[in-house]
Amino acid sequence: MIQLYKMAIRELGRNRRRSFFSSLALAIGLALLLLMAAVIAGELRQSMDSSIKLQSGHLQVRAKTYDENKTSLAWEDLIENPDQVAAQVASLAPVQVATPRLYASGIVATGDNSLGVRVFGIDPASPANAPFQNGMLSGEFLKADDIQGILVGQPLADKLGLNTGDKVNLLVNTSNGDVAQQPFFIRGIYTTHTPGFDQTTVFMPLAKAQTITQTQNHATIIFILLKDRDQTGAVANALSTSQYQVVTWEQSNSLLVQFNQFSRLYMAILYLIILAIVATVIINTLIMSVFERTREIGILAAIGMRSSSIMGMFFAESSLLGAGGILMGLVLGWIGISLFNINGFSIGSFGVTGIPLGDTIYAYVVPADVITLTVLAFIIALLAGLYPAILAARMEPVEALRGGKK
Q1: Are residues 210 and 303 located together in one domain of the fold?
Q2: Other Cβ atoms within 10 Å of 376 Cβ, number
């Protein structure tokens, strides 16, 4: 085996430029795939983290009859005494925070402009509001006893031309099916760097939201964040009752989970396409080597070298080309990902319905993806040597000594 690799190194060294560019082709292909995998993984990770922190939580406790697609405010679809229920949930050791939230559909109107929004009634003192508090661009955060203040996202404020302190009309659906209208003042403008969420979400204190929607002492959900996401299943089982439904972050983000699965399938197909293209470069390199060394192969066969050893010599060459390409590809991939993450890639307000995309994409390296791509690239490099190896092994010694001419 060592002798085969010595011969392989010597043969590859005969045409260093060709060997280098063959490995470089594999390196560029691998680096490109590593960057693409890291970008997709980063965006999916960021989207899932954003969804959990902003709207789904790790867990939600809801009324059995609640349908999130209808945003029902009927009392039978809401949780009664939500503060008491939240306190009970918060007493569990794995729970970081549990807080009631009330959701309602509404319209923000100013002058001749209006925009449909989703109203979030929140407890301003809850730590779960950290993403909104930390994202305040102007004004101040809500206070629990504020009966005339709301927070709006930057995209919404930009669309309607709103500034802190401006007065707007807010129309909100109520529990009896009517529409309540009241003037509010913009207490502050926030950003979570998730345009799809910020453009459609308005915050007000929970007490005020309950008053305007006529849902006193009721909430839509108990929003729950855990200390460890891996404890989701155990906590969900502990909270399971006949009175409420417990929804996990996987169930709340089913579209994002499906998108993640689809993206992995798509990337797997893309891996094979790009690596197959790269493999043709290695195949061509080794086939050229076969024809250039026809007489040499004939001599080796004539002095007793077995066909399996001749095949092994070409597999050794393809493995060396693959190893060199992989090492260069890992370095190039690391450089590419590092450069990409300096400023990220801004996508602005582009978004997909149901998926909270951030305004800037950053790459995130998943070790499993690196290992998978590295192993796959090496296997492809070995398979690329199969046809040239068979071609060399099947040469008749006499014909090969004549240079392949009869």
Answers
A1: no
A2: 16
